[in-house]
Amino acid sequence: MTMTPGRAPLVVASNRGPVELRVDEDGRVVENRGGGGLIGVLGPALASRNGTWVAAALTEEDRRAARTRESGTVVELPEGAVRLRSLDLDRQDYDGYYRDISNGLLWFLHHQMLDPAREPVIDAGLRESWRAFRRINARFASACASEVAPSGRVLLQDYHLSLAPRQLRTARPDVGIAHFTMIPWADPATFRALPPDLATELLDGMLGADLLAFLVPRWAEAFVATCEAAGYPVDRGRATVTDRDGRRVGICCLPVGVDPDRLRQASAGAPAEAHRRELRRLVGDRRLVVRVDRMEPSKNLLRGLDGFAELIGRDPSRRERVVHYVLAYSSRQGVPAYQAYDREVRRRVQLINERFGTPDWQPVVLETRNDFERGLAALTLADVLVVNAVRDGMNLVAKEGPVVSRRDLALVLSTEVGAADELGDAAIMVHPFDVSALADGIAAGLDMPRAERSERLTRLRKAAGALPPRQWLAQAVHELDQRLARTEDPRTD
Ligand code: G6P
Question: Which UniProt keywords are listed (predicted)?
């Protein structure tokens, strides 16, 4: 079935949109900026490009607005205006798609965090969720199909929308389609946790795109190797995988960076300044070890806390002289694994504070509010920033911290995050499972001479700002255009 084209030359689709409508305590409808790394990239990138953003309506108010404004609405972001088309989706289908498949299954699969003794369980319930995943992807595909102009471009974001490229191609064969994986990709052996029918549908869905983008080479290579193991012809020289119809699909890497100007401005603003004053009061003249994450198992908060505990446990001279500030803002609380993790993190913090704390000193301060400026303020004051994720597509906090630092922070960084490719030379690298190495890394950061911190920071900053969001989006469109040009001219393909 083909559809009547729309008018947008560029359409971006993602599960979470740039803003959420909520009813505040006084009963007024207020607009909140959506959370998560992806939004911080897409918002600045899409603003003022005459693009349309398709996203799920996530709150009751969003759903109401989506029903009354089916043609979309214009949203003013700090970086400019975008047109937003929110989708009012069936609640039960949405749970199957978001909670069970996107985050209960695919997230942990690609982060290689499924426990083979217990997960996944592919039963009738999960298969029903998979059908819901397919239906919601189809809703996104059909909204994009009705928005995009003839021969326009559609950029589909992330693992939530893995099936949409194929569905969109069927509806609108005239448009250029790119799909972006903003998380890691599982190694081929791990990917085999998916039964063959689901694995095939997923790969076939993604290969409906013209271009598949990943954040760093290791995730792109893992995808190519997965396709190869599943029997798709791959050409590493040309960076293509051939789909079931004999069409070459381009594979590329776009390591997104942060926008230094925007971040410095935000970190110098009044809200961040107020948070800074409060944090200074909290910490006094002690050294500050900071982390800023979603409350998320893959971020490795428990081992992070254990590493800090090992440090103050084995070296009493550090006690009373350092505070570990942990901002772990609440996330995906509908997914059971996240609820359990949240409880465990709080318990671990309590145990450390009970064991080491004194009347004048609370070793770990845990906060769970989702407040971007609060996080920025903490990053400006950090002596050491800890990013020890088990595995991460990129990790933008590792890039934001160095950019806004006012104390020449030392970065302690997991070897398993995408950002390690660019920042590894100037950071203190640790294996995410090695708690003792983390304790050593934090100590090394605290003890590092000022001149060395500052020299390393200069290099971190340079790497962090390498491909900021606007250029990242421009580059993505450019790569897609090039891919389409090659497909049209068989001599070059
Ligand atoms: C993280 C990932 C993104 C993902 C987002 C979804 O930020 O890096 O790739 O799209 O989570 O988060 P959400 O809160 O919408 O589930």
Answer: Glycosyltransferase, Transferase
